[in-house]
Records
---
Amino acid sequence: MHSSPLTALCPATAEAYLPSPFSEAYAHSVQPRPPQPYLRPKGSSGRSVLRLSLSFTLPGDLRSACIARTATAAALEAHGLAAYVWPVTYAVTELVSVTARMSPGRELYVSLRHRDDAIRLLVWDQHPHHAEPALADLCGSRRRRALWLLAAVVENWGGEWGVCEEEQPRHGSKSWAVLPR
């Protein structure tokens, strides 16, 4: 069983930490390959327009932040959005790292879109709703505090960010950032 010196940010999930989905044997047997983005031309005219629309699911592990950062950087560069690489890769790294600590061992969903001259980043985790208000407030406070550097970067770029709970009957939380050009 894999143990980590880092604990879950949520006090309710700290004692229910699951083992890492990455095994040491697997990590040594597979050489990482840079991700190849899927480019889908859009538009009704004869000229193709490449739009960024990337979604993927990752294991709830801190090492998933590196995967998200690499895939995001490759997609941005492939779509001619190199000016966004630094702030967006920083944002996805922070969001995936924090959401992985909120729901260790559970899958995370990452969505990256370029619309209306802005990059929209969404990370959804499977963190359960808390019935007890004090626990919900503590959990939300820890999540927001853990994202203080993200807040500074997004504010510096003139963007917005936030965290909200998923509406019932679904469970989980959505963390998002919008970075304008």
---
Amino acid sequence: MLLVVVGALAGLVGNATADTSSTAAARPGATGLAQTSGSGVGAQALSCTVSNLCVWPVTDGSRNRCSWLNRDNDWWNTPVVCSWASSQTVKAIYNRGTSTSFSGVCLYANANYTHWLYYVPQGQQFVPGPQYIVRSHRWVSSGNECFNS
């Protein structure tokens, strides 16, 4: 079941790439603390390489995908840059992580994992109700770690 928590608060490096592929059919989830699978996107809607976190500036995942294999403390600056992240909100997220060391990924409004926005469990896709510009992310073993940087 997709459990995505939207909230506020919480350095490492990742690998990101911009991609223009992928398709999806999605509807935005309702604003709130938790989203269930009924409020996110379908199980095979978004395309993302195994082990990666992928984000899009469009809800259907049809263009401008950015993806990471590792955590990234600043999407806007080197060594990894998501070209649209500083000016557009994240409208679709797919955590295709597979590591048994982690349960999900935390996404943050600021660099260096501060101002927590979303937690997305491994294997889950999500179209956030409230959509924000995201600047950093990290994999965690528990959603509670989103609050602690």
